Amino acid sequence: MIAQMNRRQALLGMVGIGGSVALAVTAGAEEHPAHPVAAPDAVAMLYDNTICTGCKACMPACNEANGLPPDTLLSGGLWDMPTDLNSKTKNIIKLYEEPDSSAFCFVKRQCMHCLDPACVTGCPFGALEKSGWGAVTWNSSLCIGCRYCEVGCPFDVPKFEWNKWNPKVVKCEFCYDRLKKEEQPACTAVCPTGAVIFGKRTDLLAKAKERIAGSPGKYFESRVYGEHEAGGTQVLYLSKVAFDKIGLPKLGSTSLGHYATKVSSVVYKWFSGPVLAACFLGSIIKKNWNRHEAERPEREKASGLRDQL
Amino acid sequence: MSARDIAGITLINHWQRGVPVYREPVVTPTLKVLAVIAVIGLSLAAARLFSPLSPFSGMNDAYAWGIWKTFNVMTLTALGSGPLALGLAAWVLNREKLHVVMRTALASGFLFYSTGLIALGIDVGRPWNFYNALLPWRWNAHSAMLEVAICMPIYCAIFLAFETLPMVLERFCYTGSAQTKATLRRLFPKFRRIYPFMITGAYVLPLMHQSSLGALLLLAGNKISPLWQSPMLPFLYLVAACVCGLGFVVFLLCIACLRYSRPLDVAILSELGTLLSGACFGFVFLQLADLAIRGQLGTAFRFDEMSVLLLIQVALILVPGIALRRRAARETPRTLLNMSIFACLGGMLYRFIPATIAFHPAPNATYFPSVPELLMSIGYIALATLAFGLAVKYFAVLPGNIAEWNYMFRRIGRTQQPVLRTQ
Amino acid sequence: MVAAPFALAITDKLTPEAVAAELGKAIRPPVIWLHFQDCTGCTETLLRPSHPDLGDLILNVISLEYHETLMAGSGRQAEQALTEAMQKYSGKYVCVVEGSIPTKDNGIYMKLAGRPAMEVLEDVGGKAAAIIAMGSCASWGGIPSADPAPTGAVGVANLLPNKPIVDLPGCPPNPYTLLGVVLQFAAYGTLPELDHERRPKFAYDRDIHEHCPRRAHFDAGRFVKQFGDEGHREGWCLYEMGCKGPDTHAGCSTRHFNEIPDVWPIGIGAPCIGCTEKNIAFRVPMFKVIQIHTTAEPPTTYAPIIAHQGKVSPIAAGVVGLAAGALAGAGYVASRKFSNVPDDESIPGSTAPKDSGNTPGGPGKDSASNR
Questions:
Q1: Which of A43, B88, C187, C270 has the least CB density, counted as fewest CB within 10 Å?
Q2: What is the full DSSP assignment across C284-328?
């Protein structure tokens, strides 16, 4: 089936393959580790829905800090009433009502600023990147609007301006401009009850665990959501009801970037995979092409016509 | 009996070289209808370039990819992987017979790819930033999307175009001016010298981007049903491309022979049938092995929506695999046609489902393409079909008998021409 | 508000008979007003309303038998008035208590005519038809009961749990609350509906926060950060200055004081200190920010956890269905044109049988003969 290779070629091929694979495997491993580690200066938000009263002060504060208009579509132009994160809403308070009961609680949704974000892994030209302090920011001059970030994000966070000709990808950017001025994000600054607070990720994780230890049985599963989910996020949640009831999906502790690039990071390291394939296929094709060309005069004589390529 | 290898030189019964379609008027009612559909689709596409996406599509934030990306690119370029599958079979596995039908595969593949890339270009929301593709320091090497966005245009515009050039340039060897003919005569030897390297690229690049199309879906994680989400997605997408590519070439050859009243060549079709059967078996084995290793075989037989879809898709590929093992079946035209249709449908389903029907981003989210979106998608397909329908008349694409070959090509502009037979 | 319509109706009339006729069967219920550990603020507050004003109240509406601040007499004359009223109206009078009652050391810290307050209360209150505990001190102990509570001050209900008591906490409570209770008793002989802390529901069933005029500022996140800052001048929400409004049940946010709108603590820029609530007033520091426990039902304008996205256009579905059907049909028709016979290389769609020799030229052979 495959044209015979001589021993020298076979040996070279094996060395080439073996060497490349070894190099690729060793070099490709760190890019997306299975369990990412937060940068030392990583900031975070801690949201505790046992404290949140649903006042929604964080929503107009966010709109104002980001220059976004209120989403008045459903309120007849009267007030900001989005039903989900969208191209005018980077941060939203949602209500969870327990069925068959009058119990309820709130949840604040915005970008989770994952430690190893799927959107950053997928963005072709790096328009979404993990910037200073771990904030995930969007750069309009690099974005081609392919919306792969929307497909990849496990929290369904990035939103697209479908109804604009110059569409932006809209999502919370941790008030990056304010972070640069050493200010807190607008939502944590305005929260009257301290339901959402800002700080270093290590500090907030410790504080969250203190709260859990101090009130056993108060928080769902006595754990912090975002400590390990999707490899860890920089927005942490404490909730009195199940996380998936308030819309926070059940996720494993490996990042999507790791899962998606496990094989490709090895195959494409230093382009070794394609180069190997090209060498391998190319050597066979060249051999067959040479034979095909050598047989061409006979064919042309037998049919009386020029060979078609 | 039909052709068999005689004294090392393959003599084929009916398909001996590419022959243009002579006895058909260029403009037929079908082509007129296709032209109308294509014009509608392309007008909408042109309008979309000056408009936001929302009036032209039903995409939303949950389903951010509509049918342009998932059907026109992901699914139809699988059908357009004929050049890859056939090329590997002909040049790497030494199936000499298949050289004759390469042109059909190339023409259809090139048209599927180019219309798919047009669809992709109209689909992106900020196309003016695409120049970043020329600046490698801005590339995110981890992104499967980058790989597709760079590799596919390079493949289509350089390597596939190079492979398609001979059939286009050939007519000018006969209809061109003396200067053109002289240039071409000088050009062809150079062409031949770089040909093996170019076709190596033409097989390596699709290996990369067809698997990257599958790798795109890896990032969606649990949003894709566990029956489809798997680390094997890239590899399975590649094998599905081979299945679809082979299946579509068989289908196209049969339908073209029906349409243009040409005899079939069972030897070549049977060869293709063998390859198709092998590819189908290979695919089903890999898919089922993947399901078994991931412990999802039980889920596959739950007979809920996802399970039924999967079983239908597996059946559509398995049945041709089994049916085409028998030589008698491979040499029966109707069986070949039906099985190739099944294989194509199965492969298309495999490529389409994980990105759309098995993609569940949020509980209450739905998506269905809007009417303009559908019209644009159908318009691109109509354009490809129309272009193919014209190409077979102006270029020597479809395989035919040497006796049919008469060294003449139609002049552009005139419809029916008397066909002269000169040496 | 109960008081206003009654009061307006009453004060038009000048003669007691006319008042009596207006009120119906009740004739000027007798009221005995006791002062214990008080500041007299709850009496003071009665000077403010004008519907009815104090004069109308005590001359036309009720028969005030004993009131240390208002009565003309003092000393033994006052004692005598009390004793006579108790005897004459025993079981029929309303006892209003102002001020808390000390209980430590046998209650020696407040004595009335040499008798400890506890004893007086038991005596006077015991014979009353109903007791109104006017003010926080009488309701649950008030300021004297603040830590360290050296006198063991308690409210009326602690000492007379089995009497019908209406608590009107507040420091002072809004006078119209008392007037409403009294006038209802005078007109119908009944007491208003009470909550679990014996407070009339018409005045105490909602908290300040629910009807606070500054609620919009709270909802929009506009808070005073420092007394005198710009927000304070703009009249923004005082929650961050320690306003206890969210946890305080009283009617102050709708019924302001002194009959001038916006004259009430929050209205003049002072955070509510929760003077009606026994767990808050004089216990929780005035400027300490409290936790808010939303007890109200959330409005329906919150975003649901799962929002709906996308829609299916029926026309598009129809188009797809038609296209799929057409393709399937065409595929079937096309396949029928292909021969079902193996090794048949004839032109598809031609009616010629397989070995008819119809196949055009070339070095082909008859299929049949070469098997």
A1: C270
A2: S-TTPPPPP---SPPPTTSEESS--B----HHHHHHHHHHHHHHH
